[in-house]
Amino acid sequence: MATFKILVLPGDGIGPEIMTQVMRVIEWFGERRGITFDICEDLIGGCAYDRYGKPISDAAVELAHSCDAIFVGAVGGTKYDELPFHLKPEQGLLRLRKDLVLFANLRPAVCFDALIDASTLKPDVISGLDLMIVRELTSGLYFGEPRGIFDHESGHIGINTQSYTTEEISRVARAAFDLARQRNSKLCSMEKANVMESGKLWRDVVQRIGDAEYPDVALTHMYADNGGMQLVRNPKQFDVIVTDNMFGDVLSDVAAMLTGSLGMLPSASLGAKDKDGKVPALYEPVHGSAPDIAGQGKANPIAGILSFAMALRHSFNRPDDCILLENAINAVLENGIRTADLLQADGKSAATTTQMGDAILAS
Ligand code: NAI
Ligand code: MG
Questions:
Q1: Does the annotation place 244 within a ligand binding site?
Q2: pLDDT tens-digit readout, 234-286
């Protein structure tokens, strides 16, 4: 039986509170479902800056390279607002993603039946929604050179560069095609090939890979601005979407809000298979450190726990256990148990972070 080495980085704010609940779930799967975990813990974010003077230590990055999966809570906090850019808590996370080349960011948008009323959209638009956005995470506009603010005859000029190589497009496209194959064999690629050369290359490369390697997957292309509109108009037309770093940032936030609360949204960031077949992987909730509710026991731990469910599928080869956990969460929600973020102001009493963890473990 394989032992999975995992690194736990609780981070700042509500990060440690939700990670306590995630750890209980991890231990449950260790004890009850026979998955052997070798667990290490370290610091990331503001707490790492307080200890080491930087947002992640070299030792933690090295440890991350040796692990099968990394779990992050959240980083950041107002007390770090005045730090120079390279020392900010968020840089710890960016360094990990970049160092491990986690180029495929998977953000599912799933509408739980019990939470239909939590969305701002009409029930029939979102009921049963289950889509996956694959966002390219380590290239594109957020990393391209040249970049910076330079002198200019009018004052200054700010420059960012959108660039993608064939290799960068190919690897994220294959990740998305593989995922589509495991789901409903339907993939929509989004860019702006009409006005951007990088978008034209993106479309051509994705089409070529589809034709040559994934003829069984129904591939369509859409301009990203239309994609944003279609996500709100009729999200259920999509199954898997693949897009670049910047469009993915925006479109995945749009898709996320189809489902209700930020406290429900998990993510996985995956890299390339190494020679031993291992895929570097980092799992984290989409939300941040929520300084406004930190330390009060109000945080919803479901995004963190669903991130572990994604690890069961993508890192531990336990798709059945992933479904088991998702069903347990759905059952808890069906029973009306809600943390404060999932309650309308209707006077019902909210469950604490720990009570939500208790309910999921008991379910
Ligand atoms: P945020 O996600 O921390 O909070 C936004 C709002 O959602 C707040 O009202 C918060 O109370 C609520 N919220 C978030 N997660 C929740 C949960 N699990 N349960 C219940 N309510 C929840 O975003 P914000 O306020 O923009 O940023 C706060 C800090 O977090 C900043 O320092 C920011 O840089 C950092 N951040 C870190 C991220 C990460 O670690 N991946 C991602 C986003 C922001
Ligand atoms: Mg964003």
A1: no
A2: 999 999 999 999 999 999 988 988 887 889 999 999 999 888 888 999 999 99
Environment class of 362 (CB within 10 Å of its CB; exposed 0-12, middle 13-18, buried 19+): exposed
Express each pLDDT in 36-54 by its tens digit.
Answer: 999 999 999 999 999 999 9
Q: What pLDDT is recorded for position 312?
A: 97
Is 192 marked active-site? yes
| 3-11 vs 69-74, strand pairing mode | parallel
Query: Which domains are present in the chain?
Result: 1-103+271-363 (3.40.718.10), 104-260 (3.40.718.10)
Render pLDDT for 284-325 as a digit per residue (tens, 0 to 9): 999 999 999 999 999 999 999 999 999 999 999 999 999 999
Q: Which ligand 1 atom minimizes the distance to the CA of 303?
A: 18
- Say how many Å lie between the CA of residue 298 and the centre of ligand 2: 23
Instruction: Give me the phi and psi of 58, to 5 degrees please.
Output: -60, -35
Specify burial of residue 177 (Cβ count, 10 A radius: 0-12, 13-18, 19+).
buried
- The residues, ordered by sequence, that sit 6+ positions from 148 with a Cβ below 8 Å of its Cβ are 158, 159
pTM of the predicted structure, to 2 decimals: 0.93
Q: How far is Cα 244 from Cα 249, in angstroms, rounded to an integer?
A: 8
Catalytic residue among 178, 225, 236, 358: 225
Give the ligand with the smallest distance to the CA of 245.
Answer: 2
